Amino acid sequence: MEKKAKLKNQNLHNPIVEYYASIHINTVDDKRNIISQAFGQKFNSVDMLSNRRQAIEYLNSRTTYFFQEEALLNFSSPLEAELKDYKDYKSLSISLEITDNKGNLFETDGSEDTLFEFLSDEYETLKSYHNVEFIKIQDNWGKNVKVLKDDYDFFENLRG
Question: What average pLDDT does the chain have?
Answer without folding.
Answer: 83
